[in-house]
Design a protein that fits this description.
This protein is mainly α. It has one domain. It is about 90% helix and about 0% strand. It has 2 helices and no strands. Helix 1 runs antiparallel to helix 2. The radius of gyration is 14 Å and the shape is elongated. The two termini are about 20 Å apart.
Length: about 60
């Protein structure tokens, strides 16, 4: 559950950069968005693995 909370925090922290990139055309914000999306992907995969392990252990 801790990782899911971290995932939600990561999404909300990236929101400002997403707006800067799409609405303002800020290229540096786009780079930060790409990094945040990579971090989200990694964290989501960790959560998937954890859920699978927990499900299979029962």
């Amino acid at each position: 559950m801790d990782k899911f909370t971290k995932l939600k925090e990561l999404v909300s922290s990236a929101e400002a950069d997403v707006q800067k990139f799409y609405d303002g055309g800020n290229g540096a914000a786009g780079t930060r968005v790409r990094k945040a999306m990579q971090d989200l992907k990694t964290l989501a995969q960790e959560i998937r693995t954890e859920v699978t392990e927990k499900k299979n252990s029962k």
